[in-house]
Amino acid sequence: HPQPEREGMFHRGSGLNLTSGQYTAPVAGYYTFTATLHIARREQRRKGQPCRGNHLRVLICVQSHCQHNSNLETVSRLESGGDLFTISVTGVLYLQAGQYASVFVDNAAGSPLTVQSGSDFSAILLGV
Questions:
Q1: At a CB cut-off of 8 Å and minimum separation 6, what does 81 contact?
Q2: What span, in angstroms and rounded, lies between the C-alpha atoms of 29 and 49?
Q3: 34 in Cβ contact with 90 (< 8 Å)
């Protein structure tokens, strides 16, 4: 089994590419995916500044196609007082051998956000 890239990280199997952030299915089947992102708001929106929105979407998409009914998605409303928060998405997707899944963040929060260390992304084969 490959060795972890850093202490405290578990990495088993060859499907996860830590550089690209993608999980590539070694075999066709149903996979359960989980992404937990720790997010920091880098600056607060100033009073009087137009608000583009106050929510954040996190998606797990196949082949970078985030169409309805073919991805996993969660939407979270951002509270005005918080600088740090966690958002998670979990579910099952079917992947063909060689297809990949990756995490996308759609920021409609009106201020820059940073994904913090300690965030995670995992995939487990449930069955073929």
A1: none
A2: 47
A3: yes
Return the residue matching tokens 């079917």.
94
pLDDT tens track of the chain, all 128 residues? Answer: 344 455 445 556 778 887 787 999 999 999 999 999 999 887 655 554 545 568 889 999 999 988 877 899 999 887 766 788 899 999 999 999 999 999 999 988 778 889 998 898 999 999 98
Whole-angstrom distance between the N-terminal and C-terminal Cα of the chain? 22
